[in-house]
Specification:
mainly alpha; about 0% strand; flat
Length: about 230
């Protein structure tokens, strides 16, 4: 009988499975609580209801922002089939996020090993991987970075209203509205994280710590630029 057989390439490690189960459980609990508070007239504090809604959106970022905006135009307060389907959509978004997380973890496990520290160049067995150099995977940045920008568009739209209101920070129209700037800050940080993940998840540069620093710098710059643009 063989001991310590190799794990299947399609199976997640234990920590990843635990993270997925915990994430989906929390999302389902928050969605059910938000649905009950929205569908029934419960005597709950308004801030608590808003907190549930915000938690539901944040947990299913980044697509949930655009989904929330679209849903506000047609979702009612009563418990109806449309309302149940709308809130169930957040669970579906969480499943999509879990699938993306699974794909990232599996792709990380399948990547080719890096040559030993003493080797100056590429390994004969893995000529595409070079120590302390850019790998051929750098081509993947041509679609991961634009995808991160695309996923950030809903957050930018919401942040542009959250900074100073519908009339902007110039004070014209309906005037400046304050009190929701923290929402814009959170969304700017979320966009920075999205860009950092898009740059770091692709194994285009070694060593890993150097790629992590570049991803951190790219995410920070992207978040600051987005905050400056939406604060107009």
């Amino acid at each position: 009988m063989m001991r310590g057989s190799r794990p299947k390439e399609s199976s997640l490690p234990r920590w990843a499975r635990t993270a997925v189960v915990a994430y989906l459980s929390v999302v389902v609990a928050v969605v059910v609580a938000a649905l009950l508070t929205a569908g029934f007239e419960l005597a709950l504090d308004a801030k608590f209801k808003e907190g549930l809604l915000l938690a539901m959106v944040v947990l299913t970022l980044p697509v949930s922002v655009g989904y929330f905006i679209i849903g506000t135009f047609g979702s009612g307060g009563e418990m109806s089939l449309i309302t149940v389907l709308y809130y169930s959509g957040y669970v579906l978004l969480a499943v999509v996020n879990a699938g993306v997380f699974r794909r990232i973890v599996l792709s990380t496990r399948k990547r080719a090993p890096v040559p030993a520290a003493g080797m100056p160049g590429a390994s004969p067995l893995y000529p595409g991987v070079k120590l302390r150099e850019v790998t051929p995977d750098a081509r993947k940045l041509w679609w991961t970075v634009p995808l991160a920008v695309l996923l950030s568009l809903p957050q930018w739209m919401v942040a542009s209203f959250a900074w100073c209101g519908i009339s902007g920070c110039s004070g014209g129209g309906f005037g400046v509205a304050t009190g929701t700037e923290w929402v814009a800050v959170i969304l700017s940080v979320v966009n920075g994280v999205i860009m950092a993940v898009a740059v770091f998840a692709v194994c285009w540069l070694y060593p890993t710590r150097k790629r992590a620093l570049i991803a951190l710098a790219a995410g920070t710059l992207f978040g600051l630029v987005g905050a400056a643009v939406t604060h107009g």
